[in-house]
Design a protein that fits this description.
The structure is a single chain. The protein is mainly β. It contains 5 helices and 33 strands. The strands form 6 sheets. Strands 12-11-10-14-19-16-17 form a 7-stranded mixed sheet, with no helix packed on it. It is globular and about 75 Å long.
Length: 552
């Protein structure tokens, strides 16, 4: 359900017309088969799946109301939106809020004045997102000159879809190794339906199509190619790039791209957009992983589809964020004030199930969301001692330039890192093992590409930079839901002293915490100082990471 009202805003003495876009989601369970293989209790909005995409224009205020008819709390996260001055609307449960209790409703206020491009919205409570509570969010550009670059705008959403409620699956995965559960490999939905039953996308000769591709995945990667055509990348994760020509996109869970595809003049053939759903770290099982799907691209109804020879991945020019430049005026952030090194560690339990960590402890929630700790502990909020060790809390000083160095020493496992509250500059990647023959790849231009989600490849490190100019508590995590669920996350406590002067949490959110039994004052245990009495000790993840040469 959607409604719009007009607002008159004043900026710099100029009058601007903005719209307050009101969207209501009545969230409940649906027994549904979306892939034609199995029927199970999924989660939808307003009695439907897929949930229709949300379109707003830059400068609009999106008011997204969630009415919770589930038997558990609900939260909503606008993936990629900075939520500047409103970290409490960011959505991760027990980090910036306690959640909307069953039978209650809440309105998230999402400002778009500083952002445009391609995003998505999903639940950030347990497995509700992968069970259906997700959709695309497109913020149309206020700058009309960008419309000169293309003629039509096409949205392509890519989803993973399981064979049972994922909360049930996660419980089983705590006692049964994933490799033994061949039926648990997800299927693919494209634009919300079974990828094998898609309606064709129609191309008209010579027209330029902006294809917005959204990986709304919580598990595997997607590769997207249109043989016989090239793609001109113009956007990654809501940030406009200098145009770069590629053959295809290799997208980790949570990433988005916009590409311009110019239709051919000839009507001799139709084509197929190839979508591959894959994972490098899962053994290949015929028909399950990888999965191959083809979206019909129709120039002429009765034309044959042109077949293309199979080519190896290394022959394909994939989009590369380390070679891309942003189109905005954000120069390379320097000098670095704070350099943070986090090693991904793994602990395999007795039945072969891994727990993960960025550092020494697997992430886990605590009674008091860290946002409330940061807001209510005065000067102590600047001390790590008030945040439980399992939060992996890192305190940032206001306006400091921060370099995050994330190391993945595993030789097989790949991860998808998503940053809340910021778009980071992509600065460098290279091998974790200093004896490797793989060269480091460092951005050499003036305006590094910025984005909010990136692949952490096996045996690789990445260096990313942000400016700590958005006071708040920001969740940082692997976007493969099983990995995040198993501890691969940390929190940035950004300028808590500034937060205390400028942020006021809506009273409804404080009341929701009371209903759900969570304190809203004090340290992580709801106590004074560093007294963590009552909190379960953190799960320590042992192991060491290989050394990396310092090439800064």
């Amino acid at each position: 359900m959607l409604a719009c009202t007009l607002l008159i805003l004043f900026a710099g003495g100029l009058q601007a017309l903005a719209v307050r876009v009101q969207v209501t989601w009545d969230i409940g369970y649906l027994n549904i088969s979306r892939d034609g293989l199995s029927t199970w209790r999924a989660i939808g909005a307003n009695g439907q799946l897929p949930i229709p995409p949300i379109y707003v224009t830059q400068g609009d205020v999106l008011e997204l109301t969630a009415i919770n008819h589930l038997d558990m709390p609900v939260t909503l996260h606008a993936h990629g939106l900075f939520q500047r001055n409103s970290t409490y609307y960011d959505g991760p449960a027990l980090i910036t809020e306690c959640g909307i209790p069953p039978g209650s409703q809440f309105t998230y206020i999402i400002e778009t004045r500083d952002q445009s491009g391609t995003y998505w919205v999903h639940s950030h409570y347990r497995m509700e997102g992968i069970d259906g509570l997700r959709t695309a969010l497109v913020i149309l550009d206020q700058d009309m000159s960008l419309l000169d670059e293309y003629d039509e705008d096409v949205l392509l959403t890519l989803e993973d879809w399981g064979q049972e409620p994922n909360n049930d699956l996660m419980e089983r995965l705590q006692v049964t190794p994933f490799a033994n559960l061949s039926t648990d490999h997800p299927t693919v939905l494209i634009n919300g339906i079974n990828a094998n039953f898609l309606q064709p996308i129609r191309f008209t000769s010579g027209r330029r199509y902006r294809l917005r591709v959204v990986s709304m995945s919580f598990t595997y990667w997607f590769k997207v190619r249109l043989p016989g055509h090239t793609m001109q990348v113009i956007e990654a994760d809501g940030i406009y790039s200098q145009p770069s020509t590629v053959d295809g996109l290799d997208m980790c869970p949570g990433q988005r791209y916009s590409v311009i595809i110019t239709a051919k003049e000839s009507l001799e053939f139709n084509y197929a957009l190839n979508v591959t759903f894959y994972s490098d770290y899962i053994p290949q099982i015929s028909g399950l992983t990888p999965r191959y799907h083809h979206v019909p691209i129709v120039y002429r109804k009765d034309a044959p589809t042109k077949t293309s020879p199979l080519i190896e991945d290394h022959e394909v020019k994939w989009a590369d964020e380390y070679a891309m430049e942003s189109r905005d005026k954000h120069m390379l952030l320097e000098p670095v004030d704070q350099h943070i090194v986090l090693n991904i560690k793994t602990l395999i339990n007795k039945v072969g199930i891994p727990n993960y960590a960025f550092g020494d402890y697997a992430y886990n929630n605590v009674p008091v969301p860290p946002l409330f700790t940061a807001l209510t502990t005065g000067d102590m909020a600047l001390s790590p001692s008030v945040y439980a060790p399992q939060l992996n809390a890192i305190i940032l000083k206001y306006n400091h330039i921060v370099e995050l160095e994330l190391r993945n020493p595993d030789t097989v496992m790949v991860h998808s890192y998503h940053c809340h509250g910021h778009a980071f500059q992509v600065v460098e990647t290279g091998p974790v093992n200093s004896n490797s023959s793989i060269p480091a790849k460092r951005f050499r231009g003036r305006q590094p590409m910025r984005r909010d989600t990136i692949t952490l490849a096996a045996n690789r490190y990445v260096r990313l930079r942000i400016k700590a100019d958005n006071p708040g508590v920001w969740f940082q995590h692997c976007h493969q839901e099983q990995h995040s669920y198993s501890g691969l996350a940390f929190t940035l406590i950004e300028a808590p002293d500034v937060m205390q002067r400028t942020l006021r949490v809506p009273q409804e959110m404080i009341e929701f915490c009371r209903i759900l039994g969570h304190p809203t004052r004090g340290n992580s245990a709801g106590r004074a100082g560093s007294d963590m009495t009552g909190i379960k000790p953190p799960l320590a993840i042992t192991g060491t990471a290989n050394s990396i040469p310092d090439t800064r």
